[in-house]
Every structure is written in C-alpha cells, then in structure tokens.
Write a structure and sequence with these properties.
This protein has 294 residues and is an alpha/beta fold. Helices cover 40% and strands 19% of the residues. It contains 10 helices and 9 strands. The chain has helices at residues 17-28, 65-74, 95-105, 128-137, 161-167, 182-190, 216-233, 238-255, 265-281, 288-292, and strands spanning 7-13, 36-41, 56-58, 81-85, 89-91, 109-119, 146-148, 156-160, 195-206. Strands 1, 2, 3, 4, 5, 6, 7, 8 and 9 form a 9-stranded mixed sheet that branches. Strand 1 (7-13), helix 1 (17-28) and strand 2 form a beta-alpha-beta unit. Helix 7 crosses helix 9 (265-281). The longest helix has 18 residues, at 216-233. The model has no long low-confidence stretch (mean pLDDT 95).
Length: 294
C-alpha cells in the first residue's frame, strides 16, 4: 500500500475575501485533495460569502500573521504536514501531490518552500486571470530537485508538524500585524531539527496583492526593527540582517523622490528613519508599530 500523509492547508487572511475565494478554488482544483483547510481570518468579514467544496474549518486569533498562523497550528494536532499559503498564492494543480511525494522521500525535511513561476510582490501585482494563464502555460515536466535554503518564503511553504509539536515551536507574536520576516524566524527555529529546503516541483504564482497590507510607515519601521529583534533573539544572522536592512534603506532612499505607483517609498523611508532613531534611543522593538498605528 502506498504510504500517505495527512495534509492540511492553512491560510491566514485579512481584507481580501474575493481573492481568498479564488485561492480556495485553486486548492479545490488540486489533484491530491487536502485532508483539511484551516482558515484564520482577522474577522468574519474577511471570509467569502460562498466557499468552494473543501473540508474547511475556521479558527480565530488576534489580528496579526504570526498569531493567526499559530491558531492554525493549534488546530492540527493529528496532522503530519501543514502547507501554509498566503491568500494571494495560486498553487499549480499538482502542488499537494508533489508535497506528499517530496516529504515521504525526504523524511529529514523540516520545512520545504516552493518555486515561484512569478511573484507579483516585486511589482504592481499579478491579476488573478494573468496568474491562471501563467499556471496554464507551466506544464512542462519539472526535474524534481531539493536544495538547501536559509528560510521559507511565507507565501508558500510546508512544515512537518511532528517537529513543531516535539519542540513547542511557534511563530513569534512579537512580530505584529504583517509579521515581516516571521517566515525566516520560524525556519531558523526548525533548522536544528530538520532540513530547510526549496523544491523545484512545488510550483505556483504569488499574486502580490497590495490590498490589506501594512502602511508604508509601519512597514518601513518593521524593515529595521524586525531584523534587529531577530538578531538579538538569535534566529537571524547579523550578516543576513545587515544585508536586508541596507538593501531596503537604500531602495527607499533612492526611490523616495520617484516612487513606484504601488509602493509608498516616502512612508517607508519615514518608518526607517523613526526606527533608526528609536534604535539609538534604546527603544526599538517590532511591537512599536502598534503604537504608531493608533
């Protein structure tokens, strides 16, 4: 008998009910159906009025990506794997099939992230119809390969749950709201117990939708505060954090005068500056954005 794993899809969502419905349609189209779909909305209004035919459960949590993902973990006591999708990630129809075969073949894997056909986060975003067209063209056979990587990419990744349960691992709720870099932090928590890998066979399109995201000011603050916090915590290397911060600071400074239409560069730069001042004053912390959001 072919060995199988019990697989859940987990989606934390806020402010995108129509897009969430489209994502759930892609989950419903999987050739290997999920054993459960766990949804954690920030509020009831974030859910679509009609659900696709899926074994869905809804859990609740305080607003914030780490807290919402922890609520999903809490609902999966008897599952082997959870596949975290952003509410704007369209998986190829064999994604879960590839997840199962990959995790059976590689029992040492703790986290596996997929390979993106396209990523709208670096531009104005990808429309659902365009994402579907990209998926329809991505039909060529893929040579399955697993390579080591530093961390997951939050829009799509697989977690082996026995590691999480054995070691009490959690997403860090000190990274509030959008939880920027929570995927790296969680990956580095898993790393002592399982491999962190990227798989060519797990494929999809990240639409990079802009609705529901943190404001430029708050995100700019997080671009400094979160890496500094994670270095102090010990889940991000100083080298990785330095490179990340310098790249973002430079991009915001250079482009603030000629910003892209889809990015609040001036707001991000103000957030960067405020974080640097707080750092010098000894008051820098990711949770400070909750005060700034009032």
């Amino acid at each position: 008998m072919t060995r199988t794993l019990k697989i859940a899809v987990g989606i934390a969502t806020k402010g995108r009910p129509e897009l969430l419905f489209a994502t759930l349609q892609r989950v419903a189209a999987q050739t290997r159906a999920p054993d459960a779909v766990i949804l954690c909305p920030a509020s009831a209004a974030d859910l679509p009025r009609v659900m696709p035919a899926l074994p869905c459960r809804v859990v609740s949590a305080p607003t914030g990506l780490p807290a919402q993902r922890n609520a999903i973990l809490d609902a999966l006591a008897d599952f082997d794997l959870v596949v975290f999708f952003d509410d704007d990630f369209f998986p190829r129809d064999d994604y879960l099939l590839q997840v199962e075969s990959t995790m059976i073949a590689r029992p040492a894997a703790g986290i596996v992230r997929g390979t993106l056909i396209a990523d709208g986060i670096h531009g104005p975003g990808i429309a659902p119809v365009e994402a579907l067209e990209l998926l329809s063209r991505d039909r060529a056979p893929v040579v399955p390969r697993l390579d080591p990587t530093y961390g997951a990419y939050g829009c799509n990744f697989v977690v082996r749950l026995d590691i999480v349960r054995a070691h009490g691992l959690r997403f860090d709720e000190a990274l509030p709201l959008y939880g920027w870099q929570e995927d790296i932090d969680f990956s580095r928590q898993v790393a002592p117990y399982g491999e962190i890998l990227v798989a060519t066979g797990l494929r999809g399109v990240h639409l990079g939708a802009k609705a529901g995201r943190t404001s430029g000011l708050l995100f700019g603050y997080s671009q400094v505060a979160n890496p500094v916090y994670l270095v102090r915590k010990g889940t991000m290397s100083t080298r990785y954090a330095r490179r990340l911060m310098l790249r973002n600071l430079a991009s915001n400074a250079v482009r603030a005068g000629w910003p892209e239409s889809h990015i609040d560069r001036a707001g991000r730069l103000r957030g960067n500056a405020l974080a640097l001042v707080d750092w010098m004053r000894g008051r820098l912390h990711p949770r400070r954005i909750l005060e700034l959001a009032r």
